[in-house]
Amino acid sequence: MRLTLRQMEVLVEIAHSRSATAAGEALSMSQSAVSAALAELEAQLGERVFDRVGKRLVLNDSGRLLLPRAMAILDQTRGIEALFGAGAAALRLGASSTVGNAIVPDIMAAFCREFPAAQFCLRVGNTQSIAEAVAQFEVDLGLVEGACHRDDLAIQPWLRDDLVVVCAPGNPLAGREVGLDELRAARWLLREVGSGTRETVETLLLDQLHGFDRAMVLGSSEAIRSAAIVGLGVACMPRRLVRDALERGQLVTVRSPLAPMHRTLYIVHHQKKTFSQALQRFLQFCQTWQDDVSTPD
């Protein structure tokens, strides 16, 4: 049995008007097309749903059983149409730690203000794990802080992310100009291998410091931020993640001969990903996104 929405519409309109001609006018169909749709419906059900009383069509017991269900189906269909017309989305996003904690929530909030019907599922992990999730079609888009070296992924540069070296105000390196030897000898708070932040820090700092004499590895940028605040060591972190702590005086920037540091954040998707209108809309929203990160000191 293959009932159609058109048959449901015909049933409802005839029930209201008791006339195939009037139903046709309401549905912009010919009287013969209405009659044909009704005949197909009754043939598929194996039941008459109207009694023929002269030129009138009156619902019989089978028709009265079917009518509320047909009306419910049509209401649900209109609801689906209205949902997509309102910019509905059910998007699965993957984000590496910095992006997922400091940027994506603001983007989602702004997007939902413009498209209230949008829904999101956000997975946060390191860059490698998010790249793998994109590759396995477990998420629709990845927003990451490290380049993904995979042939099956398309990667595009996105935002500039400034990095700063920070420590607690009570750290011996705070409040003065620090030499490279002192930086190398400090205890560094680092992310795990596979993190985009770890990769960037090593790329930017190892050539200048020639290694870290002491290091403590923590599994998230938030843990590093907290460890730096309580004085466990020095960290090179995205300004976005430590902006509030710097403003409150919980952290200070370390003055040193190091050149200003920044990296590029990326958007990645599978090469064979099919973009829905909602996903394309969100991608464009991300591409034009600008936040208000303060400029370096």
So what's the overall shape? rod-shaped
- Write the CATH homologous superfamily of the largest domain: Periplasmic binding protein-like II
CATH architect. name of the largest domain: 3-Layer(aba) Sandwich
Q: What fraction strand?
A: 15-25%
Strands, count: 11
What pattern of helices and strands is seen along the backbone?
HHHEEHEHHEHEEHEHEHEHEEH
Helix content: 40-55%
Distance from first to last alpha carbon: 71 Å
Low-confidence stretches: none
**Overall domain count:** 3
Briefly note the structural class of the backbone.
alpha/beta
Q: Report the radius of gyration as a whole number of Å.
A: 31 Å
Total helical elements: 12
Q: Major sheet: size, sense and barrel closure?
A: 7 strands, mixed
The CATH class name of the largest domain reads Alpha Beta
Q: In CATH terms, what is the fold-level topology of the largest domain?
A: D-Maltodextrin-Binding Protein, domain 2
Mean pLDDT: 89
Folded structure, characterized:
The protein has 297 residues and is α/β, with parallel strands linked by helices. It folds into 3 domains: 5-85, Winged helix-like DNA-binding domain superfamily/Winged helix DNA-binding domain (Arc Repressor Mutant, subunit A), CATH 1.10.10; 89-159 and 264-287, D-Maltodextrin-Binding Protein, domain 2, CATH 3.40.190.10; 160-262, D-Maltodextrin-Binding Protein, domain 2. It contains 12 helices and 11 strands. The protein has helices spanning 5-17, 20-27, 31-45, 61-85, 97-102, 104-114, 127-135, 180-185, 196-209, 221-229, 239-248, 277-287, and strands spanning 50-53, 56-59, 89-96, 118-125, 141-144, 153-167, 187-190, 214-217, 235-238, 252-253, 261-270. The strands form 3 sheets. Strands 3, 4, 5, 6, 9, 10 and 11 form a 7-stranded mixed β-sheet that branches. The protein has a two-stranded antiparallel sheet with strand order 1-2. A hairpin with a 2-residue loop joins strand 1 (50-53) and strand 2. Helix 1 crosses helix 3 (31-45), helix 1 crosses helix 4 and helix 2 (20-27) crosses helix 3. The longest helix has 25 residues, at 61-85. The chain is rod-shaped, with a radius of gyration of 31 Å. The model has no long low-confidence stretch (mean pLDDT 89).
